[in-house]
Amino acid sequence: MHEKRVARAYVTELMLALVVYTVLLSAAIRYGRPMEDGILRTLVLVSPMIGFGLMIRTMVRHFARIDEYQRMRMLENLAVASAITGAATFTYGFMETAGFPKLSMFSVWIVMCASVAIVNLGRRWLDR
What we know:
Elements: H1 2-32, H2 39-46, H3 49-65, H4 68-97, H5 106-127
Helix pairs in contact: 1-2, 1-3, 4-5
């Protein structure tokens, strides 16, 4: 019962944070890009980070709610995913010096999310 309540709270909070992020991102793209350079434009373009901060808060709250075993497993998965992300981005840094195209820093987040998914799926498969 507790696990379902914790999972429901996590999903609800995360979806709310994603909605805030999406609304702010849409507004930043729509209104921030055409603005003249300056502090106001910078603040508008960075405003989606409010939603991102809410996502971080949601994850921290989730870690506080779950039991020690789940916390350990999640942190292990994040550690492995972070190592994979570090290796992938560091490798690509060397490839850029060999002439590969420069990638946006947004690419790192995509690699991190994919790494977390792969590690979670891999560990679930191994635990069967």
